[in-house]
Design brief:
Elements lengths: L2 E6 L3 H9 L5 E5 L19 E4 L1 H9 L11 E4 L1 E5 L6 E5 H4 L5 E5 H12 L5 E5 L3 E6 L4 E5 L4 E9 L6 H5 L4 E17 L6 E6 L4 E6 L4 E9 H9 L2 H11 L7 E3 L4 E10 L3 E2 L2 E3 L5 E2 L7 H18 L9 H30 L3 H16 L1 H11 L2
Parallel strand pairs: 1-2, 1-11, 2-8, 5-13, 11-19
Antiparallel strand pairs: 3-7, 4-7, 5-6, 9-10, 10-11, 12-15, 12-16, 12-17, 13-14, 14-15, 17-20, 18-19
Helix pairs in contact: 1-4, 1-8, 8-9
């Protein structure tokens, strides 16, 4: 075989796995033509798309020498979180001090994280980057896997890792079924300056279906993720910057004072995707190719990083010359991830269903639940620690 591993998909999860699996011969295939900024040529301003990374994800990125490559000025610690129910009174609060950790999460822009990953990958030995490459066909046999690209190139490896998103080519080519349903919502993201200091606190408001989050950025800036019905999302996307800022300030009950829009809004359709399996002969799925959940808990990227870390660890645990596509090895990865992914999917979908319900009894139950959890420090800290993984 030409390579040990072919990674299809060059986003955060595919790139982080390729980095974590260093020491093996790796080819990474992605359809986009990638531009890596070195600093002087970086776009000005802040990226509207951000991630809330758990301490576990940060530790993984430190291990693969990526976290250190991000400028400190572009990483914001979250030291507390304030969750509000839809009755104006229910609340749940998490504090890093109470949880015994320096911070609950870190907020990092997509652009900064992507650039750091690819700067590190660019110096990696035995790494081939096939950019602007569209997959045409994938064949698997007892010896390995062979990937044909639309431009005529051919690649072969012992293992193909699908990190190519919710509509994964690798998943489909491997014959792995996936269930998919729309949440009937769109996530609208944008950044704002705020009139009142955020104090490194992340805020979230459940709004009887929609969910609004304001996440701290460096200085007096915050990043918004507002998951709303598709029609409402179209209205927000069509609003002027001034209208959008007023809408967000009103929905957040003036918590951060007057807001001013500093990035154009972007929109992402939300859906739940569950792969029936995450491994097949010479195939492994990670990230959105394996599972997509609602962003209300901010755990999509963290689940993907956990996949990348675990698959790389499983491959490293075998003998140095062991076949990376050995199905017995891959099944260890599948077993190790099953419980964590199932628990997170159940939690997120349960919260979404509970807060989307319109009946008065359920509204009382969900808001009472927030208040009760906030009154029980042990339960609150258990929830906080679960999110730190």
């Amino acid at each position: 075989m030409e390579h040990d591993v072919i990674v299809v998909g060059g986003g955060l999860i595919g790139a982080s796995f390729a980095r974590a699996a260093r020491g093996r011969s790796i080819a990474l295939v992605e359809p986009a033509q990638r531009t890596v900024h070195t600093g002087a040529d970086a776009p000005e301003g802040f990226d509207a798309r951000v991630y809330a990374l758990s301490p576990g994800s940060v530790a993984f990125l430190e291990e693969i020498k990526v976290w250190q490559a991000i400028a400190p000025a572009r990483k914001t610690p979250v030291r507390a979180m304030r969750v509000r129910g839809d009755d104006g009174a229910a609340r749940l609060e998490f504090d890093a001090y109470d949880a015994g950790v320096p911070e609950l999460a870190w907020i990092v822009e997509d652009r900064e994280l992507q650039n750091a990953l690819w700067r590190v990958l660019g110096a990696q030995d035995e790494f081939e980057h096939c950019s602007g490459a569209v997959c045409a066909s994938l064949a698997v046999d007892a010896d390995g896997a062979r990937l044909a690209l639309a431009d005529g190139r051919r690649l072969s490896a012992r293992l193909v890792v699908g990190a190519d998103g919710a509509r994964s080519f690798v998943r489909g080519a491997a014959g792995i079924a996936a269930s998919e349903r729309s949440y009937g919502q769109t996530a609208v993201v944008a950044n704002f300056t705020c009139g009142r200091a955020h104090g490194n606190v992340a805020y979230q408001w459940f709004q009887a279906g929609p969910v609004l989050a304001l996440l701290p950025l460096p200085g007096d800036r915050v990043s918004m993720v507002w998951s709303v019905g598709d029609a409402r999302a179209a209205e927000l996307m069509a609003a002027t910057p001034e209208q959008l800022a007023r809408e967000v300030a009103e929905a957040s009950r003036g918590e951060l004072g007057t807001l001013e829009t500093i990035t154009a809004p972007q929109a992402f359709a939300l859906r739940c995707v569950v792969a029936a399996r995450v491994v097949a002969p010479r195939i492994a799925l990670i990230g959105d190719a394996a599972h997509v959940v609602h962003p209300l808990a901010g755990q999509g990227a963290n689940l993907g990083f956990q996949d990348a870390r675990e698959l790389a660890a499983v491959l490293a645990s075998g003998a140095p010359l062991r076949d990376a596509g050995d199905l017995r090895l891959l099944r260890r990865y599948e077993r190790s991830r099953r419980e964590a992914v199932l628990a997170m999917r159940a939690t997120v979908n349960g919260l979404f269903g509970l807060f989307a319900a319109e009946s008065a009894p359920l509204r009382r139950v969900r808001n009472l639940g927030l208040n009760l959890t906030g009154c029980l420090p042990v339960l609150r800290n258990v929830l906080a620690r679960h999110a730190l993984a």
